[in-house]
TrEMBL record:
Presence of the UniProt keyword Oxidoreductase in the record: yes
Protein name in the entry: FAD-dependent monooxygenase
FAD-binding domain sequence ranges: 2-345
UniProt keyword annotation of Oxidoreductase present: yes
Entries under Gene3D superfamilies matching the protein: FAD/NAD(P)-binding domain (3.50.50.60)
Keyword set, alphabetical order: Monooxygenase, Oxidoreductase
A Pfam short name: FAD_binding_3
Organism in which the protein naturally occurs: Streptosporangium oxazolinicum
A GO molecular-function annotation: monooxygenase activity
Cleaved signal peptide residues: none
Length: 404
């Protein structure tokens, strides 16, 4: 049986493992960290296209810890309403986009992979690999070497596999924004569950959603012109950071300040990055998927969905195309145009959140209402290419020729 070594046990790793297993390949997942991230950290909204891809693999429990978010509402910082749009079209069985903590999603995907008897090893930090005459050998920090027929890099934004495939591979691109957020408790704020409330504030973007348990999940994206170092961000105390955020939202007519004050622990900020074009997706029998090869800015709400879609397409390619490098090349030809378009969509969405000079802000305040009016009028068509993408498992794939 063909054996695939999968580096990374985040989103792409376990889902690819389940797709490969369905395709008749033996997957082995290697994750650098311990299995202990459940329930902690930031959250994400898994869009309907990602959920649909999970359903193709029969993965139904991964989002049990989350809750549905079928709508987005947009406002200016003044409180002026811009529009209400669907967060992707509902699937025939009623499935809609769903919010979940990243740690819970990771934990549930890994548990589902283990339930399917997939080999998952924790505490295995990948450090290097070579193509051999008939396969690959992967090396880990603890001195272990593992042989396989192919290697899949699903090791995220700061991928080590990417630099093994191509030492000159590009590094993540900074989006001139940082990200923070938290979970507020014991506070009542306007709005209904099932909707993301997004505010284009005078000095910063703010978003919140109501958890059915009464918590308010929120995040903010302060503009930060130059990429901050880890040390710079670590030097800001939690209380200074809270005070800074309250100041950023002080002049807005939104619940942001009350929500921030009602948050016991605000996440330390981190930079927003993406990865637009990676020239080499594969080398011999090694291939990249997910954030390791096309990280999407969180402003698109599509990174996890792209990782899941990748996994499904890769499973189909390896199922239907016996030659492994040919299957990898076909995977790239199918996926590259879509993921690069989504990365670019995320970048443009992020650019809208950057608050620059006063002139830029004035222009934004004039243009935004028109922009959102257009989106509301033409909502389904405007974003259907993102949300309506479907990948039926049973539809066969044949090798695709290289573009002329
Ligand atoms: C704050 C934030 C909000 C987001 N919001 C959304 C959203 O709303 N919707 C959405 O769809 N996406 C969102 N995303 C993006 C989404 O989280 C990612 O696109 C998705 O997790 C990518 O999955 P992945 O498996 O490719 O990478 P990751 O989830 O990053 O997983 C990579 C895994 O590889 C492991 N690893 C790394 N290096 C090694 C190594 N050397 N050896 C072994 N293992 C290694 C890591 O520990 C990790 O478990 C958000 C991201 C962030 C940061």
């Amino acid at each position: 049986m063909t054996t695939a070594l999968i580096i990374g046990g985040g989103v792409a790793g376990p889902v690819a493992a389940m797709a490969l297993q369905k395709a008749g390949i033996e997957p082995r997942v290697f994750e650098a960290y311990d299995k202990s991230a459940e329930g902690i950290g930031a959250n994400l909204v898994l869009a309907v296209n990602g959920r649909s891809a999970l359903l193709e693999l029969g993965i139904t429990t991964a989002l049990d810890a989350g809750f549905d978010i079928p709508y987005n509402r947009y406002f200016m910082g003044s409180g002026r309403r811009l529009s209400k749009v669907a967060n992707g079209k509902q699937l025939d069985d009623g499935t809609v986009s769903r919010a979940v903590k990243r740690g819970d999603l990771y934990g549930a995907l890994r548990d589902e992979a283990l339930r399917r008897d997939i080999h998952v090893e924790f505490g295995m930090r990948f450090i290097g690999a070579e193509n051999t005459a008939d396969g690959v050998v992967a090396r880990f920090e603890n001195g272990t070497e593992v042989h396989g027929d192919l290697l899949i890099g699903a090791d995220g934004l700061h991928s080590t596999v990417r630099t093994i495939i191509d030492p000159n591979a590009p590094k993540p691109r900074y989006g001139r924004l940082i990200n923070t957020g938290g979970y507020a408790r014991d506070i009542s704020v306007p709005g209904e569950p099932g909707t993301e409330f997004m505010y284009l504030g005078k000095r910063c973007f703010f978003c919140y959603i109501h958890h059915p348990n009464g918590e308010i999940w929120w995040y903010a994206a302060p503009s930060w012109p130059n990429e901050p170092s880890r040390e710079e961000l670590a030097s800001i105390t939690r209380e200074d950071w809270r005070a800074h955020l309250c100041e950023l939202f002080a002049k807005d007519n939104t619940p942001a300040v009350d929500i921030i004050k009602a948050t016991p622990e605000i996440w330390a900020p981190w930079p927003i990055n993406d990865l637009p074009t990676v020239p080499r997706w594969s080398n011999g029998r090694m291939l990249l998927i997910g954030d390791s090869v096309h990280a999407v800015s969180p402003t698109a709400g599509q990174g996890a969905s792209m990782a899941i879609e990748d996994s499904l397409v890769l499973g189909k390619c390896l199922r239907d195309i016996p030659d492994i490098p040919e299957a990898m090349a076909t995977f790239e030809r199918i996926r590259r145009p879509r993921v690069e378009k989504v990365v670019s969509f995320g970048r443009r969405a992020g650019d809208l959140l950057i608050v620059g000079s006063q002139a830029r802000r004035r222009a934004r305040d004039l243009l935004m209402p028109l922009f959102f009016k257009r989106i509301a009028l033409n909502e389904a068509a405007a974003l259907s290419w993102v949300y309506d993408h479907r990948i039926p498992w049973d539809e066969p794939i044949s090798p695709q020729p290289a573009p002329a």
